[in-house]
Amino acid sequence: MFSGLSAFPLTPMNAAGPDDVTFVRLIENLAEANVDSIGALGSTGSYAYLNRAERARIARLAVQHAGPVPVMVGIGATSTREVLHLAEDAQQAGAKALLLAPVSYQPLNSEEVYELYRNVSHELSVPLCVYDNPRTTRFEFSDELHARIARLPGVASIKIPGVPADPQAAKERVERLRKQIPSHVSIGISGDPLAATGLNAGCELWYSVLGGLFPRTALALTRAALAGDSEQAEQLSRELTPLWEMFHQHGSARVVAAAAELLGHVEAPCLPAPLQALNNTERTTLAALLDKLALSR
Amino acid sequence: MFSGLSAFPLTPMNAAGPDDVTFVRLIENLAEANVDSIGALGSTGSYAYLNRAERARIARLAVQHAGPVPVMVGIGATSTREVLHLAEDAQQAGAKALLLAPVSYQPLNSEEVYELYRNVSHELSVPLCVYDNPRTTRFEFSDELHARIARLPGVASIKIPGVPADPQAAKERVERLRKQIPSHVSIGISGDPLAATGLNAGCELWYSVLGGLFPRTALALTRAALAGDSEQAEQLSRELTPLWEMFHQHGSARVVAAAAELLGHVEAPCLPAPLQALNNTERTTLAALLDKLALSR
């Protein structure tokens, strides 16, 4: 399951908590689009804002409505104890893989992060994806630490937070990491604005925010890149430049949440407070952009 | 209650969760030392690593064993929903004040943080302390935002993350903030290494990590400063320089946790995994230092 397009849907919220019905519709759309995997309860899926019972329920709904598409579930939390509980819940829900970021309150050091992955990896019966996202965890993985963690049992993929924009530098970056980790561990690109660059540079999959809402647009880009048509992949990405700029400015989750609200796929507000999607001026810009781009669900 | 020494105890952990018996002993020591207030479930008290039921229980234990000393309880969480639940629990436990940091996963913007405080402040029946701690929340308050939030109903104090080391610059910093907030809102210094400098610069209280374990040492420094003996306060702080250096290097919670373990006040390991107190080499250094400093509980 660690190749192609891994689509990360929102977990839409309402006043009472996660909006199950709307979440199921997002999952069904991903299953119909035939994405290669679904990443439920990723950052875009607001995992860090839900309690354990809600996360277990959302994990079950994702698996139940994904059809044959394998579901990976985010199990990040500040404490190792809670991560282990969440791993158990997600596996019981039928998750085919788990996604773990070193979520922090007190800034973590490398030894703490290694011990977190070591303790968790020994308790799992499904593969683990290492989620490297310094923007939300404020932890910077060194390649040396990636190499140590990638050798732990069950580690199957690393979700990297981006690559250099220059294609040659991106290739060197991916090759440098590739050399240090076992060959069975895939490298996936996240940070949608550089997804084409990452795939063209040798990443095996795209962990995609855009793909959670617009799977067919994200699939076209992914398939062009993985078929070796790097020009076509770059061209498809370039067409989305104004959207990527909004991702940079506001964070991808806020932009995709506002897009889902504008297009009527979720009720507004769909993000968990205190997070806010875009303000009115920004929404007007985004609405015009969505009209023009005609992204494909 | 927002003056003098506010002491922040550890919440010692064991394999099952918070170690109630040991926590109660720490609280009783603070009550006997007659600190001006107790900050239960602060960063040092690992609030971000406990679930709602554990936090409610620890809040109750703190209030029950603090005697006449007023207890403030930390209610920070990533979601506003959870913060409101925690506020309710803490007030039912008998907290005399609440402490709220803008805890984040997705980085927050100023409008989101303002709305968080606005929504929460309207639901409270006890005073609120604004907890400004960019090291753990990764959110930087502007003075303008402090001014807006300080005008919300019930806001009674701001816990600032430090002051410049230079006494004159520290004074200017505190005066600049003071001018922008209502006079009934106190300013408290945190970041123990600059506590004396902050108190001498006009902060009304010290939100103290050291004071959670060694209240009498922290009280001596606080009382000297608040009595106007700035030289004596600076001198007492200077004597602790090697300890402050360890705070800077490892984070104050890791150092105080290791000190509590070394002195037998808590069982080891007392921090919630994945957090680790100091390694063996660092512990040897700390043990020698504790011998030399003979801090007063």
Features:
homodimer, 297 residues, alpha/beta, TIM Barrel, two-stranded antiparallel sheet, lyase (chains A, B)
Q: Name the poorly predicted regions of chain A.
A: none
Give the integer mean of the pLDDT values of chain A: 98
The domain tally of chain A reads 1
Rg result of chain A: 18 Å
User: Shape of chain A, please?
Assistant: globular
Biggest interface reads:
A-B, 37 and 37 residues
Percentage of residues in DSSP E strands of chain A = 5-15%
The biggest sheet of chain A, with number of strands, parallel, antiparallel or mixed sense and barrel status, is: 8 strands, parallel, barrel
Please state the second-level CATH architecture of chain A: Alpha-Beta Barrel
Number of helices of chain A: 14
Number of strand segments of chain A: 10
CATH superfamily of chain A: Aldolase class I
Q: Return the structural class of chain A.
A: alpha/beta
Helix and strand succession of chain A? EEEHEHEHEHEHHEHEHEHHHHHH
The CATH class of chain A turns out to be Alpha Beta
